[in-house]
Structures are given as C-alpha cells and as structure tokens.
Amino acid sequence: xxxxxxxxxxxxxxxxxxxxxxxxxxxxxxxxxxxxxxxxxxxxxxxxxxxxxxxxxxxxxxxxxxxxxxxxxxxxxxxxxxxxxxxxxxxxxxxxxxxxxxxxxxxxxxxxxxxxxxxxxxxxxxxxxxxxxxxxxxxxxxxxxxxxxxxxxxxxxxxxxxxxxxxxxxxxxxxxxxxxxxxxxxxxxxxxxxxxxxxxxxxxxxxxxxxxxxxxxxxxxxxxxxxxxxxxxxxxxxxxxxxxxxxxxxxxxxxxxxxxxxxxxxxxxxxxxxxxxxxxxxxxxxxxxxxxxx
Length: 294
Prior knowledge:
Elements: E1 4-8, E2 12-17, E3 20-25, E4 28-34, E5 38-43, E6 48-50, H1 52-60, E7 64-68, E8 74-78, H2 87-96, H3 99-123, H4 129-135, H5 146-159, H6 173-193, H7 212-218, H8 222-235, H9 244-251, E9 257-260, E10 263-266, H10 267-283
Parallel strand pairs: 1-5, 2-6, 5-7
Antiparallel strand pairs: 2-3, 3-4, 7-8, 9-10
Helix pairs in contact: 3-4, 3-5, 3-8, 4-5, 6-7, 6-8, 6-9, 6-10
C-alpha cells in the first residue's frame, strides 16, 4: 500500500480516535485520515498542538513525523524505537559488520548515485558519458573520492555553470534542501522498519548526527529530488520562497515511480526494498545492495 504524506500548514490540533488522525482547525474537524495510511506527517505551522495519543499512534504505525522551523524547512524528525520483532539480532549484525563489508557497500552506494546522476543528464539531453565512466572507477570505500569528482561535473550540467551546490546557497538550493530532508525522513523510516539503527553509518560518522546511515542510503535517491527541482525550475522564475505549490511538488517525490530490475514501484516502497537489502548485506546473506534506477 502506498503511504500518504500529510502536511499541516495551518493552526491545528492533532489527536487520534478509532485509529484515525483527527485534524481540528478553528474548533471544527477539518479532516480525518486513517493512521495506517500515513507514511510521513510534515508539520510546518508553529501553532500546532498534539495529543500524546496521536503521536503514540503515529509511531506505532511506523509513521515519520517531521517538524519544521519558522522558515518552513524541516528541523526535527520523530521515529519509532521498536518496529521489528528481530531488532536486537539485526542491531548485532549491523554493529558487528566488518570495515571491508561497509567499504564495499559504500562503493555500491556511490556508484548507484553517480549512475542515477548520469540518467538525469540523459533525461535533460546533456552529456552523461563522463559520469558513466566515473562510476566504473569507484573503488572500495570510494578511496579516490570519485563522488566529489562526479559532483563537480554534474551540477553545472544540471543548473548552469554559475550554480554552486551549497546548503545556504542561492536558489534552487533551498528546494534541494527541502526535498532531500523529506526523502531523508523516508529513508530513516525505512531503516527503522527494517530493524536497523539510523545512527550507525557506513561512511558518514559525524558524532553529532543521529542519522548517519540515513544520510548514507539517501545518496542514490538525491537525483530523484534533483529531477523534481529541475522541472520546478523550468516553470518558476522566482524560487526564493518555498510556496505551498512548490512544497506540494517536492513532497510528491515520495510517490514517484522508481525502477528495480524493470519493476516499477513508488519511491517510498522502494526505500523499504533498499533497506531490507542492506540488512541482508550486513548479515552476510547477500552481497549487492538493491538501489532503484531513475
């Protein structure tokens, strides 16, 4: 079943009753949504009140709750702690995975990212041969930093020579940031559902980052966000503000089709296939990660 992404953009009270999320606005019920249908709840208005029962029900359903800052950018993420019956066993496999295994998985991750970047350039009618060649040169742990070399070629092709990919840079950096954070929440949700700790990364190791593994697994999915931002960029002259319409388009990335071995599925479903394959790799029952093609 395709899970829904729900955005709360107005002052509201959120509660739950009979397995439904109840949204109250101005003292009246504005909506009722089955909690089992919700994959991500994005709350961007500061005047939103939650009941404990509401949050508990969402977490029991393995829904990700994203809280936004005053600038409407995602600021925090709430995830369930226990969603897999074999969680302790899976934690053990994850913790005990050897460095050579992690480096090989990071190599596959970087290759998948660069290949999807190349596919986006193909979609745009741009030269992609350079990226295809670089993907073949990635070594264990990406010791040659091929990912960075690919980025230097990729971004000018997508948004022009003047563009610099910087977190606090000029638009459309703001759209990319928002889109990545939405997909990152979906990745973290899928990791937890697969019984893995989002904190213990393959490559990312920032001591202050609670989602290192989510950031690792996010990489091949970034070009999916890039494609949506490219399409928005074509139709909007002013991208300095994240309007409701633009955010709606960015949130739809979670339901866009992705391809696994010629089989299509929504991206949010694909995330679970990827994280399930990650566990099998960490436990030694599989050697290749399953990432989708753009």
